[in-house]
Amino acid sequence: MVKVTVHVTLRQGVLDPQGKAIKDSLNSLGYAEVEDARVGKSIELMVEEGPDLEARVEEMCKKLLANPVMEDYRIEVEGAVRS
């Protein structure tokens, strides 16, 4: 088994009201150095290893895990995990 993490974020230019609320709240708490905040999600998958692993995960992202119109994604494969 391989642990695959998919990081999904809103594309640049897409409004992120949750990120703006976090930035504004941090600024009001005295963290003026925070200039921007973007909110995303991480999805961890345990996947059987195979020669087309990354292509299959890419397919999963396009079909279900990310909205290609509004979101970008990055795939991270961590290697074999032993139980």
From TrEMBL:
Enzyme class: ligase
Coiled coil stretches, renumbered: none
Function description: Part of the phosphoribosylformylglycinamidine synthase complex involved in the purines biosynthetic pathway. Catalyzes the ATP-dependent conversion of formylglycinamide ribonucleotide (FGAR) and glutamine to yield formylglycinamidine ribonucleotide (FGAM) and glutamate. The FGAM synthase complex is composed of three subunits. PurQ produces an ammonia molecule by converting glutamine to glutamate. PurL transfers the ammonia molecule to FGAR to form FGAM in an ATP-dependent manner.
EC id: 6.3.5.3
Catalytic activity field: N(2)-formyl-N(1)-(5-phospho-beta-D-ribosyl)glycinamide + L-glutamine + ATP + H2O = 2-formamido-N(1)-(5-O-phospho-beta-D-ribosyl)acetamidine + L-glutamate + ADP + phosphate + H(+)
GO MF annotation: an example: phosphoribosylformylglycinamidine synthase activity
Protein name as annotated: Phosphoribosylformylglycinamidine synthase subunit PurS
Family: Belongs to the PurS family.
Record Gene3D superfamilies: Phosphoribosylformylglycinamidine synthase subunit PurS (3.30.1280.10)
Entry superkingdom: Bacteria
Signal sequence segment: none
Gene name as annotated: purS
